[in-house]
Design goal:
Blueprint lengths: L1 H8 L6 H14 L2 E5 L2 H12 L5 E5 L4 H9 L3 E5 L10 H10 L3 E4 L12 H11 L4 E3 L7 E2 L2 E2 L6 E5 L12 E5 L2 H11 L22 H12 L1 H19 L5 E3 L6 E2 L5 E5 L7 H12 L19 H6 L7 H9 E4 L7 H14 L2
Parallel strand pairs: 2-3, 2-4, 5-8
Antiparallel strand pairs: 1-9, 6-7, 6-11, 8-9, 10-12, 12-13
Helix pairs in contact: 1-8, 2-8, 3-4, 3-7, 9-13, 10-13
The structure holds pyridoxal-5'-phosphate.
Length: 359
């Protein structure tokens, strides 16, 4: 109905639905927001506002390709940092070493993997603050997640969110930036609309793009945001039930989410016994073929440094590696099916399937 209303209004982009979407997102990010076309656009705009061209951007080696690709498009050299295994954030020691090795670092991009805002974010922010380096949160996984009650997207200079269909809140396609400073948000509005030098102006002062969110996508997003409190509560209840159901299942161990982190459970993460006889691909195959159970996608199965796009970076700077913790995580984690309409019986079936396949 809301899409129909947007269509018959004749305003198809950058109108009242976008304004309402930004308004509804605000309390969940703790800051004022500006909607954009995608999570990738949000990241690229944030990095263009900071101005990273010709310098280094530090990115966790375990994240989605889009985090690093945005930095490449904004003209930066990407360098990778290992993670810590408690909250899956940037490892503070690895970050400190990387900052020493790359004194031209223009920005650091922590990523809230699986919807966990890691307690290690605080020391990372402190280090960056000390060195005067801006932080952009890649909060694509973390809409509604918190650390010590503070929302994802309220820690860095800017926070980037995605509303791609697989994320916890969605608009079909869409993205959002949260920012502390009104000037940064005004810059977002310029960048997203072809780099116009002022709203409504026909003069352009930067190489912006079409990074606008359509009214149709925003209309979809407003519906999902209006019910987001219920979505979040449902995801957390499902995660608590998995915790209980998995307690006595051998061969699999749920990720212990740090007490300070209020995860949105974008992913329910667990670890297979590294010494067990089943690796993840085989387990996934058996669950699918014998039980009709499909596990969710990993976050992630390949480290960024192993993608062909980044082969050159890897050769240039082997010193940043070997990323042992991220490699362990990539190899051994699984993500159980979790979405708001999942029933208790379905969860019981998932866990029974795991129990029957794990030794
Ligand atoms: C989904 C995602 C993005 C990109 O978002 P899009 O809306 O698909 O452009 C960026 N970073 C991470 C970590 C993501 O999961």
């Amino acid at each position: 109905d809301r899409v129909d209303a947007a269509l018959s209004s004749g305003i198809l982009t950058q109108g009242p639905q976008v304004a309402r979407f930004e308004e509804l997102a605000r309390p969940w990010t703790g800051r004022d927001t500006a909607a954009v076309a995608s999570g990738s656009a949000a990241l690229e705009i944030a990095l263009r506002i900071i101005g990273v061209a010709g310098r280094t951007v530090l990115v966790p080696v375990n994240t989605y390709f889009a985090t690093a690709a945005a930095a490449v498009r904004a003209g930066a050299a990407v360098r990778f940092v290992d993670i810590e295994l408690d909250g899956l954030g940037l490892d503070p020691d690895a970050l400190s070493a990387a900052l020493d090795r790359h004194p031209d670092t223009a920005a650091v991009l922590p990523v809230h993997i699986g919807g966990i805002v890691s307690p290690a974010l605080d020391p990372a922010l402190a280090q960056c603050h000390l060195r005067g380096i801006p932080v952009v949160e890649d909060a694509a996984h973390a809409f509604g997640a918190t650390l010590d009650g503070r929302p994802a997207g309220s820690f860095g200079r800017l926070g980037a969110f995605s509303f791609f269909p697989t994320k916890v809140a969605m608009s079909g396609e869409g993205g959002l930036l949260s920012a502390a400073s009104a000037d940064d948000l005004e810059q977002v509005r310029r960048w997203r609309d072809h780099g116009k030098s002022a709203q409504g102006s026909t003069l352009h002062d930067r190489p912006g793009g079409n990074w606008r969110l359509s009214e149709l996508h925003a209309a979809v997003g407003t519906v999902d945001l209006e019910r987001f409190a219920a979505t979040l509560a449902a995801r957390r209840a499902l995660a608590a039930r998995y915790d209980a159901l998995l307690a006595d299942v051998p061969g699999i161990r749920p990720h212990a989410v740090p007490a300070a982190a209020g995860s949105n459970y974008y992913k329910y993460l667990a670890y297979l016994d590294p010494d067990g006889p089943l690796d993840r691909p085989l387990l996934k195959k058996l669950l699918r073929e014998r039980h009709g159970v499909s596990l969710a996608g990993e976050v992630y199965d390949h480290l960024l440094c192993d993608h062909p796009q980044f082969a050159a970076e890897r050769r240039q700077d082997a010193a940043d590696g070997p990323f042992e913790r991220a490699r362990w995580f990539a190899r051994h984690h699984v993500a159980l099916p979790l979405y708001p309409s999942l029933t208790e019986n379905e969860q019981i079936r998932v866990v029974a399937a795991l129990r029957s396949e794990l030794p």
